[in-house]
Amino acid sequence: MPRTPAAPSLIHATGGARPDFSADGPQVHSYTLDNGMDVVVVPDGRVPVATHMVWYRNGSADDPIGVSGIAHFLEHLMFKGTEKHPAGAFSKVVSELGGQENAFTSYDYTAYFQRVAKEHLGTMMGFEADRMANLRLSDEVVAPERDVVLEERRMRVETDPAAQLSEAMAASLFVHHPYGIPIIGWMHEIEALDRGHALDYYGRFYTPENAILVVAGDVVPDEVLRLADGTYGRVAPRGARPVRVRPREPEPRAMRRVAVADPRVEQPTLQRLYLAPSALTGPARESAALEVLAELLGGGPTSYLYRTLVLDKAVAVNAGAWYMASAIDDTRFALYLVPAHGTSLEVAEEALDAAIRAIPDAALEEAAIARAKTRLVAETVYAADSQTSLARIYGAALAIGETIEDVKRWPSDVEAVTREDLVAAAARVLAPHRSVTGELRKAG
Amino acid sequence: MPRTPAAPSLIHATGGARPDFSADGPQVHSYTLDNGMDVVVVPDGRVPVATHMVWYRNGSADDPIGVSGIAHFLEHLMFKGTEKHPAGAFSKVVSELGGQENAFTSYDYTAYFQRVAKEHLGTMMGFEADRMANLRLSDEVVAPERDVVLEERRMRVETDPAAQLSEAMAASLFVHHPYGIPIIGWMHEIEALDRGHALDYYGRFYTPENAILVVAGDVVPDEVLRLADGTYGRVAPRGARPVRVRPREPEPRAMRRVAVADPRVEQPTLQRLYLAPSALTGPARESAALEVLAELLGGGPTSYLYRTLVLDKAVAVNAGAWYMASAIDDTRFALYLVPAHGTSLEVAEEALDAAIRAIPDAALEEAAIARAKTRLVAETVYAADSQTSLARIYGAALAIGETIEDVKRWPSDVEAVTREDLVAAAARVLAPHRSVTGELRKAG
Questions:
Q1: What is the DSSP string of B372-389?
Q2: Verdict on whether the full-model pTM lies above 0.90
C-alpha cells in the first residue's frame, strides 16, 4: 500500500521519498509486452521530465538459503557494464544528461531508476534493457565489489549498535521467514559470494517476465509503449516468471526481548515490534486498520503515544509507531520511544505498556480516529508533488503482487476503517506473545 | 562426543539411554561395504544378545527449507512396509522374537534399532536393508500418518508451555541455522507434508553411502560383516553420499530473552542458552573444556551452581548446566534453575548471574576441576553396562563426522583440560551477547 516503511531498503545515492498520491488518483495506463514484461505509465505533465524505473520481483527475502545478500550484491553488480556499454557508461550518460539515478534492494523487490529530461527516456530504456540481458561479470569485477559491500556492512552495521539491535530484533521476530535476514546479508555469507552466485541469481530473476517498467512524467503513454517495445520488448522471454520460495513464519508463542549494550550508544531507546499481517496476508480490513492505528498511536506530535508519554507523563522525549503494510508476507508493526533524561528504560516501558493496555478507551475516540484517517489520506495527497514517489508507489505495489486498483482504492479502504476494526486489530496484533522488545543501552 | 544431550531427539518407544564407555574402550571393528555403507562392530559378550542399529547421516537440520519435519515424518513412514514386508511385519517379527525396537530423529541424524537374541541378527539386517531400498508409500498411508505426527506435535508442544518456551528459545539462539527449527517441524509445514516430499527425501538420503550399520553384542565381527554383505551389501549404491546444505549461524551481537506465561505452568523456571562451539566446530580443546565446565558448574548436587544457588543462597530448589557437544555445527551450552518457593525469577536470576560472574575465582579450584573430570570419565565407565549405549555412542559419533579414534580419545581429552582452558572457555562462551534467557511463568 502507498505508505513507505521506515527503513526496509538499502537505498543508494539519494534518500527515500515519501509516497505520492492524490485523492482521485492519477491516470494510470498499464500494458504487458509480448515477452511478459509489465509496463505502467503515469502521465504527470507539470515539468518536462520523466522518471524511468524498472522493478524486479525479487528482493533479499528471495535470496537462496546460505546465500544472503545476493539480491543486494547483484544490484551493485548491475552497474558493472555489458558488452555494449562498459562499466560506468550508463551512469556517465545519466550524469551528462543532467539526470539522477538510483537503485535499491528491499525485502520483496529490487529497483533501478533514472530521472531525466523527457526526451532522453528512450536512451534510458536502451541502457536498462541492455543490462537486463547482457550483464558481463568477471572475477576481476566481482571480487572488489564484494569488498565494497563488506565495507558497506561494516560501516552500517558492525560499527553501529542501533543497527545491530535492529538486526537482532528482526531475527527474533522472524525466526523462520527470511524477513529475519538482513537485506545486505550476514557478514560471513557476503564474504562467500562469488561470480557463480551472481550469475545464477541474475539468470534466474533478471528476466522480462519478472520485471515491471514504470514511467511517470511528461510523457504520452502510446509513445512510452512504442519505446518500451523497441528496447525491453527485444529481450528474449524465458517462458515463465521465476518462483519465489519462502517459508511461512510460525505462529509466535513467546514474548521476546533483545538487548544491545555498547559504549558508543549516546541515547538509549526502546523499540517494540509485533508480527502483523501485511496488506497481502491479512483479513480484508485488518491492514487498513493497522495503518490507521499506527497513525493514530504514533504518527507525529499529536498522536496518542506522543501525547501520553512525552506531553502528559514526560517519561519520553519522543515516541511513535509505524506499520510496514507493503510486504508480501507477514510484517512489522512497531512502537518506539526515547526516554526522557533521567528516566530509565524500565520506567518508560511501563508507561508504554500502560498506554497500550488503555488503547480501546483512551486512544480510540471517534474524533481521534477521524483525524488520523484525514492525516493519512492528506499526507498522500501532499506527497503527490513528487513524481518519483508516484512512480514508486505503483512499482512497489505491482512488485509485491498488488494491483493498480488496490493502490487507487487505498484512500477509501482507510476511510472505511471503523472503531471496531481498530479495537479488534489492536487486540489481536499488539499482543505480548507476538512481540519483540528491543533495548539499546549505553554500556557502563 | 560420548555424552548424550538433554533432549535433542524425538525418541520413540523407549527412552534415551546414557552413553556407554570404558576407560580403555572396547574393541571396535570397522569396515566399509562395496556400496559405501559403513559398518561398525562392537563385540560385547556379556549376554547372548545383539543390538542392531542403522544410522543415516541426515536429521531435522537437513530438512529442506519450508519442509520442516520431513526427517521425522519419514522416520514414521519407514514403518509402513515394503513390497516384500507389509506394514507392521517388521515390528511383529521383532516382537515375536522377544526383541525391542526403536527409532529416533535428531538434528543431525536419524536411526533405527532393534535388540534381539544374537541368532536373529541376520533377520534384522534383512528387514532393515529391505526398507532402505524398497519402502512403499501410498497416499492412503501418508495422510493418516501425518495426522499422527500432527497429534504428536499437539500433545508435545501445543499444549505444553515448557515445550513452547523451548522452541522459542532455540529459534532465538539459532536465528539462521536450522537447529532453531524444531525436530518435529513447524505445525503449518507438517500440515503440508505429502507423499512427494517423503519420496524425494527418501530417495535423497536413504542410501547405502549415507548409512552406518552399528552392531554391538555377542557377535563375531567377521560373521557380522558376512551378514551385512549379504543384506545391506545388495543395496545398489548411488555413486556419492548426499550433501548436507546448512547455513552457518552469524556471530551473535545481542542479549536475548524469551518469556512464556501460561495458566498451566505449575512451576516457574529460568533457563539460559549460550551459542557454543561443538566438538566439531570449536578450537581443539574448547569443546572438552566446555564438557568439564558443564559438569563442574551444573552436574548434580555437588556442582558449583547447585551448591551456590540451592544450598548456600537458597534461592533455588534445583540448578544445573549441560552442554550438547555432539553436534555438527555450533551448539548449546545451558544453565537452568527452579526458583525456591517465594523467590522470584528475577531474584534467582540475579543470583545466577552473580555466580556466573564469579566463576574464575569461585568455581575453578583445582580440586573441583579434578573431581569434575573424574565424574565425567567415571560416568562413561559406569554407563558401559548398556550395550545400547555402546552402540549409540559410535553411531552418533560417526553420523556427525567423528571417528572411532575421536570417541576413544575422549577420556584423555577430558583429562587434558586445564584451568586456563576453563577460564578461557567460560569467558568466551558464557557472554551475555551469546545468550538467550528463557522465563517460564504462571500466567495470573
A1: HHHHHHHHHHHGGG-HHH
A2: no
